[in-house]
Amino acid sequence: MEIKTKFNVGDKVFYMRDNRVQSGEVRGMQVLIHRSEANVIVYVSFGDKRGYTEDVLFESKEELLKSL
Known about the structure:
Blueprint: E1 12-17, E2 20-25, E3 28-34, E4 37-43, E5 51-53, H1 61-67
Antiparallel strand pairs: 1-2, 3-4, 4-5
């Protein structure tokens, strides 16, 4: 199985948290594999303990706003 990620550690990303646009740097990732499906959980900022799936993270603020 080959796993490709949308982001790399150190990339800047934009996401929604508490109905506000947030930005942060990718500080780590966790790959969860169940049968033949893999999910990548991305950890963004040191102050934010939550993990985010790649589908809710964006490369730019404009890209995030277009998705709403």
